[in-house]
Specification:
The complex is a heterodimer of chains A (123) and B (515). Chain A has four helices and no strands. By secondary structure, chain A is an all-alpha fold. Chain A has two domains: 29 residues; 59 residues. Chain A is flat, with a radius of gyration of 26 Å. In chain A, 0% of the residues are buried. Chain B is mainly α and 515 residues long. Chain B has one domain. The longest helix of chain B is centred in the middle third of the chain and has 32 residues. The chains are: A mainly alpha (123), B mainly alpha (515). The interface between A and B is small, with 8 and 8 residues.
Chain lengths: 123, 515
């Protein structure tokens, strides 16, 4: 019925079978010598310290959310700046500038709000 | 893609732009005002913003001649009589929510200007959602509407049930949004477009497309996402918890605004773009009708039967709002048989979609009327909404009790209030199709309306015929009284002189024909 999906299905089947086969063969055939450092949590080469499941201050989440919000600014601004010269060439220079100005103004309002609200203070 | 931009594009979305501007300023007012200052003035500012948006919507309405539709922003949005009609409803909803919220939040020690900002942002999102012609843009606007509502549900932070309701609404709402988007992805895959007009053209060009499995899956997912927003069974389980836990002004705004926005999109998408003539599955295209039919029956019964044993009045109203969604679906089905405000059989007929619009208008005012009165009961993050808390209240505060009574009667559909004519038009249009299945559906809806009378009248019995058992704090609020006066006048006006408003609804639907 949907012939174009046959390739995709084949790929999925092959991926699952191949991946599973390699893991199973490795488990059956490979030598297994478990030592303490092999079984330990991997923490970028350092000695693991403490439990991974401890509580973080709720403030980290606020900072993280604010970071994402204002990081998007850069995500939008960079491509815009790269192709801006072409916009000028196409006669859309003023229009695209105003568009970005609107975006940055709204973001600025948000920053003013966040700043005055005290969300940037740690305490 | 070609970039097109004209000044008329901004004119088309002016109501939303005004709401967004006022919302931004309201948020800044909150942080720049002295901390000890009451935030009532910000709510007043928001009310002014809503009034300006309402005035612009009315101004836009006066410029409408016949059936017209203006595409905006390269066919991403449209401006037509339909969207203008709903922009008016949302502006009124925001106005009433601002008026109701000011004093309520002070009494509950949650006096923050963000309330106003969030209400206005949500109203702007609702307006843009109804104006969307592209399904992806519609989804973005759905989120602009939903996210402020999630926050507003937990706005009174002292209230634990408020926090619970906000989290529940957010988790389920985001899943529903994802399902909706998944459905849009399927439809895009099959039709090659997310533009409603282009999709309809694809269906018309290839009749077999409407019967394809992936289109059905996409449509059902799209319907599921929207059904969650308007609380159709079996997607209604969040409703009682959220309506009960949310601050009462927010509950009213949700019942009036979110429901209207959801149904408006359903009219645009299901009744117009993908009417029963475009989609056929099952024998003789009955499958699609049957699905809606089952949803309508399940929703009416789920809402009404669950409302009967409720002793918490807000929960009862939540279930009743589910039941109302079921009645509205009867209108959507009637409309989806392919009328656009034109006469179906009789010369006086207005069509199912117009009846839906008129119903949403009266429902918005009736529900605000009821909830404005209920919002007065409570203090410091605790709301007193047990039915026995209303005992004997009818003689203590006669006007509030009268407003509550008339609001409940309007929801029940008692003449001469607006709710009666809303139901009347809805059921008459369904009968006018002269299809046996619609007659049965209408009969079920009428049976349900009679069941609903029981739980509406029970509150009135407690108001006037029972002795109070304990002292319940109920504050005075000029804002709430203003809301009650406006809503009461509107409910009476809609009931006594419905013709003008029905004509407005009919003209709105007429403008929907896609071109």
């Amino acid at each position: 019925m949907h012939e174009q999906y046959v390739t995709l299905a084949t790929l999925a089947v092959v991926a699952v079978v191949l991946g599973g086969l390699i893991l199973i063969l490795n488990r059956i055939l490979g030598p297994q010598k478990w030592t303490k450092s092999k079984l330990d949590t991997f923490e970028t080469g350092n000695e693991p310290e403490g439990d991974a499941r401890h509580r973080f201050s709720i403030r980290f989440y606020l900072v993280a959310i604010l970071f994402i919000l204002f990081d998007i600014e850069a995500v939008f601004l960079f491509p815009w700046a790269v192709v801006y010269r072409e916009y000028i060439g196409a006669g859309l220079g003023l229009f695209m500038f105003m568009e970005m100005l609107v975006f940055v103004t709204i973001l600025g309002l948000g920053l003013a709000y966040v700043w005055r609200k005290g969300a940037l203070e740690w305490d | 893609m070609e970039i097109t931009f004209q000044a008329s594009d901004l004119w088309g979305i002016l109501p939303a732009l005004i709401l967004i501007a006022f919302a931004s300023v309201a948020a800044l007012m909150e942080v720049f005002a002295r901390p000890d200052q009451s935030r009532g003035f910000i709510a007043g500012f928001g009310a002014i913003g809503s009034l300006v948006a309402l005035a612009v919507s009315i101004w836009q309405w006066t410029g409408i001649e016949g059936a017209y539709q203006v595409p905006l922003f390269g066919k991403m949005l449209v401006m037509d009589a339909f969207s203008t009609f709903f922009n008016g409803i949302f502006a009124v909803g925001a106005l009433l929510a601002c008026l109701l919220g000011g004093r309520y939040l002070r009494e509950h020690k949650a006096d923050f200007g963000e309330y106003t900002a969030l209400v206005l942002f949500a109203a702007a999102g609702m307006g843009l959602m109804v104006q969307s012609r592209d399904l992806v843009v519609m989804f973005v606007n759905l989120e602009i509407m939903s996210i402020p509502i999630y926050v507003l549900s937990g706005f009174v932070r002292k209230n634990r049930r408020g926090a619970e309701s906000a989290l529940k609404y957010f988790l389920m709402g985001s899943v529903a949004s994802a399902v909706l988007l998944y459905g849009v992805a399927f439809l895009y895959g099959m039709t090659g477009s997310t533009d409603l007009v282009a999709m309809r053209e694809a269906f018309d060009a290839d009749k077999a497309l409407g019967t394809s499995l992936l289109v059905k899956v996409g449509m059902v997912f799209l319907l599921g996402g929207l059904a969650f927003k308007v609380a159709l069974a079996p997607f209604h389980l969040w409703t009682p918890d959220v309506y009960d836990g949310a601050p009462t002004p927010v509950t009213a705004f949700m019942a009036a605004g979110v429901k209207a926005a959801g149904f408006a999109v359903m009219v645009r998408v299901f009744a117009v773009t993908f009417g029963f003539d475009a989609l056929e599955f099952g024998a003789d295209g009955k499958g699609w009708v049957g699905l809606f039919y089952a949803l309508a029956v399940a929703t009416m019964f789920a809402g009404n039967l669950a409302a009967i044993p409720q002793v918490n009045v807000k929960r009862m109203l939540a279930y009743s709002s589910i039941a109302h969604a079921g009645y509205l679906l009867v209108g959507i089905i009637t409309g989806a048989f392919g009328d656009l405000g034109s006469a179906t059989s009789a010369a006086t007929a207005i069509g199912g979609n117009s009846a839906v619009l008129y119903y949403l208008l009266t429902y918005a005012f009736s529900t605000f009327l009821v909830l404005a009165a209920i919002s007065l009961f409570g203090k410091d993050g605790e709301e007193f909404v047990h039915i026995s808390d209303f005992a004997g209240f009818g003689f203590k505060r006669p006007f509030v009790a009268l407003a509550l009574t008339l609001g409940l009667l309007s929801l029940a559909g008692i003449p001469p209030l607006g709710g009666f004519f809303a139901k009347f038009y809805l059921f008459r249009e369904a009968m006018a199709l002269q299809k046996p299945e619609m007659v049965w559906l209408t009969l079920l809806a009428i049976v349900n309306s009679m069941i609903a009378l029981y739980y509406y009248l029970r509150v009135i019995v407690f108001l006037y015929m029972k002795e109070p058992t304990r002292e319940v704090p109920a504050f005075e609020s000029k804002g709430a009284v203003a809301v009650m006066i406006v809503a009461l006048a509107a409910v009476l006006l809609l009931g006594l002189f419905p013709d003008g408003y029905v004509e407005m609804a009919r003209r709105s639907v007429e403008s929907l024909a896609l071109r």
